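As noted in the main text, all predictions were made from sequence alone. Below is one such record, for Crotonobetainyl-CoA:carnitine CoA-transferase CaiB.
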Amino acid sequence: MTDFAPTPSAAPLASVKVLDFSRILSGPYASMVLADLGADVIKVEPLKAGDETRGFPPFQNGMSHYYAALNRNKRSIAVDLKTPEGKKIAHDLASRSDILLENFRPGVMDRLGLGYSALSEANPRLIYGSISGFGPDSPLSEKPAFDIVAQALSGVMSVNREPGQAPNKLGLPMGDMAGSIFSIFGLLAALHERNSTGQGRHVEVAMLDSMIAMQGYLSQIYFLTGRSPEPVGTQHPSIVPYGSFPTADGYVIVACLTERFWHNFARCLGHPELIDDPRFAIYQQRLAHRSQLEPIINARMTSDTSTYWLARLAEYDVPSAPILSIGEALEQDHVAARQLIETVQHPVVGDMRMVRSPIRFDGEGPAPCVAPSLLGEGTVSILRDELNVPESEIRCLTARGIIKTCAN
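Prediction:
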């Protein structure tokens, strides 16, 4: 099979080389965003099965949905890092890289001889990114960390529920993605700094730290009152009315973040008298009298359908929305107009629909996506073109089981 590489583009990170040792979600999402921005990302995978997510069903012609969602625009090299030859390949690639990303438990990369101190000595310009569950100095540092663990320990699950219901995790894997997002911030900041200093850095991000940092106003409620915020479901802990409201045939979202929107909503309901009612006239009073206001709203809204209310809310300029399924969200007009879905061709899988990066520069979206690679699909081209390894040596490494290509 012929190796393929991402199409060159004039994207902002087009000259940046990323060596990605990460797997599952928190690291791969971060490296995918860097790839979307133009970076040349080489994904280093274990020989036998590669990134664990390659085995997560469901599959499209053998390609895992999970792996596909997080690994577009990357090249895969499969190498045994426990062999001296495999370690040398990793060291040689790191010496040519701008950014290295890993998300093992603290200490794993050091034991492999691929820690920051070892690699930065040969490449002082290397920016080394580490994403872990808790960080090396946490009392939890040795504890396995996955998305739901970070969500539980961050407090977010305690408020992600209706009052009186069991705690629930966010539908999005936010524990993983928070670590990804903050690592991107850190890596790009370090890359900017390196332009002035010529020196790399070790950027460390913990998933739990990131989730706690994203509590926003919830943490300030606790600091101010000394009490943990109570769950309010789709409602807001301090803004009323805000959340999902029942209609005759479903629910719609209403979000009155300003007094103007509250006044618009009261008129939309046909209850303009609520605007001057002292119980509801200002934020604090609406919050204090939530239990009296919401039944009035519910009684009025359940008298008509969701379609009726969405049209009327739009007419009165009230922030509102239907609650869409994932499929409905992906097929809505906005997604088509913004060209957020792209069909890419994979040499084995065939046509694949993928969500594109949301970032635009000068009004233009990202370059066309390259489909996620097969395990070891880029091994030959990476060794040959990046490290100048002779074809004969590549055949020898393959025969000895140190590397894997698509042909073996």
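The chain has a mean pLDDT of 94. The first strand starts at residue 17 and ends at 20. These features were considered when defining construct boundaries for the mutagenesis experiments described in Section 2.9.
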